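Slack export, channel: ligand-projects

TW: morning all. Re-posting the request from yesterday since it got buried. We need the structure predicted with the small molecule present, not the apo form. The ligand is magnesium ion; the SMILES is in the block with the sequence. No rush, but it would help planning for next week.
GE: picking it up
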Amino acid sequence: MFSTNKAGSQADKQVDKESFLLRRMMDGCQRRAKILAVTSGKGGVGKTNISANLSICLAASQKKVLLLDADMSLGNLDVIMDINSKYNISHMINGHKSIEEIVHITPGGLGVICGASGLEGLANVGEFQRQRLLKELSCLQDDNDMIVIDTAAGISKSVVGFCLASDHVLVVTTPDATAMTDAYAMIKVLAGNKFAGHISVTVNMARTIAEGKKTYQQIANVAKRFLGVDVYDAGTLLRDERLNNAVRMRKPVVLAYPKAQITSSLVALAAKLNNGCAANTSEDGFFKKVVDWFF
Ligand SMILES: Nc1ncnc2c1ncn2[C@@H]1O[C@H](COP(=O)(O)OP(=O)(O)OP(=O)(O)O)[C@@H](O)[C@H]1O
Ligand SMILES: [Mg+2]
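GE: finished. pasting the full token output, ligand included:
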């Protein structure tokens, strides 16, 4: 299903980039991407690996997908995906690079923006520049079917801002009590801020499917009972040493082990999220909501 070709030649990359730009011109910014934020509460539960692999699966199913590393301090998507990206949003803010130049296109056609730390810089730009940037950024939303946001851990203002601006929040947890408590804390913050989108939970690093299901059910029950919130089951991913091997190889596991069970589970997760992610109907685009939240 997936090409296991290493990074691809320079010529391939050029063709990828050209076809991306061509598609963008032909599309005339017609679409409005669904926004999926992948978040957790507790750190180290697998958000970045899930975001990367999920995005690859979605792009492989003919979706035009953009993956944004929104971990403003410790973003490591570039490491997991072996992307050597020189530019991020800050280069666009200071006017040195265009939006096309900060999007890294992978051989599979997935667009990736590494390090959204530049978004913080928006606080210091004038209104004219801010509007210009917002226009460029919202073109990204118009230009993709889906934008996947890999957030940092915790319930900081920045993480919550990205989640609230999204259509669908995928809360990642493990069966550990601390991870479950922190996942619930995130759901509580979303509910407290009247988040109107979809909330799903995926249980990662479970020892068995039954353990994953039980973990999901416990969180869903408490969220329903105390917050009145419906939390959907995005499925279980088992603990698998192949995922660690893939990280060491700097290759997403779905590409390193296309036939493994963890790959099938990630493909199923992508299909589920693709179906459950309601279309963006808001007048305000995702990036406008993010910027309004921050400033
Ligand atoms: N299903 C899995 N099986 C085995 N190891 C896993 C699995 N999922 C994630 N890991 C390992 O857990 C570690 C953390 O993964 P990852 O960086 O994706 O988490 P994160 O939630 O993004 O962390 P952070 O909060 O620091 O951003 C990595 O070493 C990864 O290899
Ligand atoms: Mg991470």
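GE: first-pass observations. The beta strands are 34-39, 65-70, 104-105, 111-113, 146-151, 168-173, 198-206, 232-238. Residues 47-48, 71, 150 surround magnesium ion (ligand 2) (CB under 6 Å).
TW: perfect, thank you
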